[in-house]
Design brief:
The complex is a heterodimer of chains A (324) and B (282).
Chain A: H1 21-59, E1 69-70, E2 75-76, H2 79-110, H3 113-128, H4 131-158, H5 175-200, H6 203-211, H7 216-225, H8 229-245, H9 248-253, H10 271-278, H11 285-314
Antiparallel strand pairs in A: 1-2
Helix pairs in contact in A: 1-11, 2-5, 2-8, 3-5, 5-8, 6-7, 8-11, 10-11
Chain B: H1 3-42, H2 48-52, H3 67-97, H4 101-116, H5 119-134, H6 139-163, H7 167-175, H8 180-191, H9 193-208, H10 212-215, H11 235-244, H12 248-276
Helix pairs in contact in B: 1-12, 3-6, 3-9, 3-11, 4-6, 5-6, 6-9, 7-8, 9-12, 11-12
Classes of the chains: A mainly alpha (324), B mainly alpha (282).
């Protein structure tokens, strides 16, 4: 029991002054962490720009348009990699976006309730598979199958069309393979973002369409998809951002050839995979600087694409919309 | 509208539903195929020797294991955790407890941008900032590169979890005269603990499989790693090199290594699910 001799404070002014140092130190620690985050940002920018400086000075803008890749004569150009990146990403999007949106529609509208959680878990597991394992599987399982079945058939019967022409590699390494593997890798993220977008569509939209006598597909098409159009575009652009940066799986299946071929069935190279391949072996400063410049191009494009995606997605996900 | 037009509309609707089912099946198939082949090609190679021996020095020979790579992956995860989690955690606390509207917008934006940077770039950053000054590849460099990936990730997940703690808890603490930092540490963090742990585990699962950032920072090591300043072997790098190697025995070991790696990743995901408990209905 407290001694009764101790007088209780009469007013708030009698209370001992609160110790504010704990608060200040803690808040300072959190602010320091945010500063460190900013430092990460600056580090990445600085390292890339500083590393690329030599190459930028040596080649200027022609770096982005030149097709040369000759370590001996020190003649480098990034066009083949830009081409490879763009084409493989395009193939990946063409395959993945329809499949993902279809799956998202299935998950939000058609799937029985007991199936939704397991299916979502399966898609999350798909996202967790590391890139190098997709590369391993692609190298030993998918590519031989692709080579033996679609590629040979396409090359034989449609070889006169440029995109299916040319002699194909026995291993199946080509831009098409890279596109397919990247498609598999971006399926999870495009699906889950699409699903969130579709769930953000107010129930009222669907109910109104049903009330007017629309069939299930018509409800989806008219009430849901047109409402969610911008968000779904954002999901696709997010997938694009992921696709641009895929490195390991691509480098194992793309064939690593610094030439631009019109045919999808021929090998190529992408910005990310050429860095992975060559960085450890770059024999001199100029070559390494070239790789930094490629990294700079890659990061620049990826950041712009990701910002675009975030803007599109945020424009539909507003708080307070009823979820399906 | 005539009856046949309605029939057409209904048929079209069923068709599209079938298409949606097809899409869902196509999305699930790659996972099934990958797991099937990993088990088929890798399971038989998982023996005691694989888990305890070093890689065979002779590339054409058979036998040898990936013990150093398995331990190396765990070691790199610990280094990245130690470097990255405190920063990410405190940063997330800043976003949810302190900071103004505009500052927080900037910080969130920066974190989202950093989350989208291809991981190979962090490898280049780690190379320039750690490998070059230290004149050598090292486990520390690998950990730094992986920490760069962890920081924005943990920051965003921490913030998302802390924001869910009801404001009433904080207000109750304030009403009792508890200093603000104690409220954050003892009340808010404790309430959100499960979510924080799952966020960290998810980030760990992500970096366990990362290859590109450690390719030219940690490099890989045919032997055991004895110090933070030496190169270190890691499962993803080992799998990569063995997969592209021309020697069939190394290819076989690549499959086994991949099976172990995916085991680690799925174990982390499973822990997340167990800790988070039952999720809300989809």
């Amino acid at each position: 029991m407290k001694s009764t001799a101790q007088a209780l404070p009469a007013t708030a002014a009698d209370l001992p002054a609160p110790n504010r140092w704990g608060n200040r130190i803690f808040e300072g620690m959190t602010m320091l962490s945010v500063v460190i985050l900013g430092v990460c940002f600056v580090c990445a920018a600085y390292v890339l720009v500083e590393g690329a400086w030599l190459a930028i000075h040596t080649y200027g803008w022609s770096f982005l348009t030149s097709q040369q890749w000759n370590p001996v004569t020190e003649n480098f150009g990034a066009l083949p990699f830009i081409f490879g990146t763009v084409v493989s990403a395009a193939i990946a999007l063409l395959i993945a976006v329809p499949l993902s949106i279809g799956t998202a529609i299935f998950l939000t509208d058609l799937a029985p309730l007991w199936m939704r959680q397991p299916l979502t878990s399966v898609i999350e597991m798909l996202a967790a598979v590391p890139s190098v394992i997709w590369g391993l599987w692609g190298l030993f399982v998918l590519m031989p199958w692709l080579h033996d079945h679609p590629y040979t058939w396409l090359n034989k019967h449609f070889g006169s069309i440029p995109i299916f022409g040319g002699p194909i590699e026995g291993s199946g390494s080509c831009i098409m393979s890279a596109g397919i593997i990247v498609a598999i890798m971006i399926l999870p993220i495009v699906t889950s973002v699409s699903r969130e977008i579709l769930r953000a569509v107010p129930d009222l939209q669907r109910e109104a369409a049903y009330g007017l006598g629309a069939t299930r597909w018509e409800v989806t098409r008219i009430a849901v998809l047109s409402y969610a159009r911008r968000g779904l575009l954002g999901a696709a652009v997010l997938g694009l951002g992921r696709a641009l940066g895929e490195t390991m799986a691509v480098t194992m299946v793309v064939g690593n050839s610094p030439k631009i071929h019109a045919s999808l069935l021929q090998p190529g190279w992408t910005l990310a995979s050429v860095i992975a391949n060559q960085f450890g072996e770059a024999s001199d400063d100029l070559q390494r600087s070239v790789l930094f410049e490629i990294g700079l191009v890659l990061v620049g494009v990826t950041i712009v694409v990701n910002i675009g995606a975030l803007i599109l997605i945020k424009s539909i996900e507003t708080p307070g919309t009823r979820r399906a | 509208m005539s009856a046949t037009y309605d029939q057409y509309r209904k048929a079209k609707s069923h068709c599209m539903s079938g298409l949606a089912v097809f899409c869902a099946v196509m999305v699930v198939m790659p996972l099934v195929l990958v797991l099937f082949y990993l088990l088929k090609m890798g399971f038989s190679s998982l023996n005691w020797a694989f888990f305890t021996q070093l890689p065979n020095a002779d590339p054409e020979g058979s036998g040898g294991g990936m013990a150093n790579a398995i331990v190396g992956t765990l070691e790199l995860m610990v280094i990245a955790l130690v470097l990255g989690v405190p920063v990410g955690l405190l940063g997330g606390i800043f976003l949810s407890e302190y900071g103004g509207e505009k500052t927080n917008g900037f910080v969130r934006f920066a974190a989202d941008v950093l989350n989208g940077v291809p991981s190979i770039v962090w490898g280049m950053v780690g190379y320039t900032l750690v490998v070059v000054p230290m004149h050598g590849y090292s486990a520390f460099a690998g950990g730094v590169a992986l920490a760069f990936i962890m920081i924005p990730l943990v920051l965003r997940t921490t913030e998302e979890v802390l924001v869910l703690v009801p404001g009433a808890y904080r207000e109750a603490g304030l009403a009792l005269g508890i200093p603000r930092w104690k409220i954050t540490v003892h009340i808010v963090l404790r309430t959100a603990f499960k979510g924080l742990v799952t966020g960290v585990l998810l980030a760990l699962g992500r970096i366990a499989g990362e290859t590109a950032p450690i390719l030219f920072t940690a490099l890989g090591n045919p032997n055991w790693n004895n110090s933070l300043k030496e190169p270190i072997a890691a499962l993803p790098i080992q799998i990569y090199y063995y997969a592209i190697s021309p020697f069939p025995d190394q290819n076989r070991q690549a499959w086994a290594g991949a099976l172990v790696l995916i085991g680690i990743v799925f174990l982390l995901s499973a822990s997340v699910r167990i800790i988070a408990g039952r999720r809300k209905k989809a």
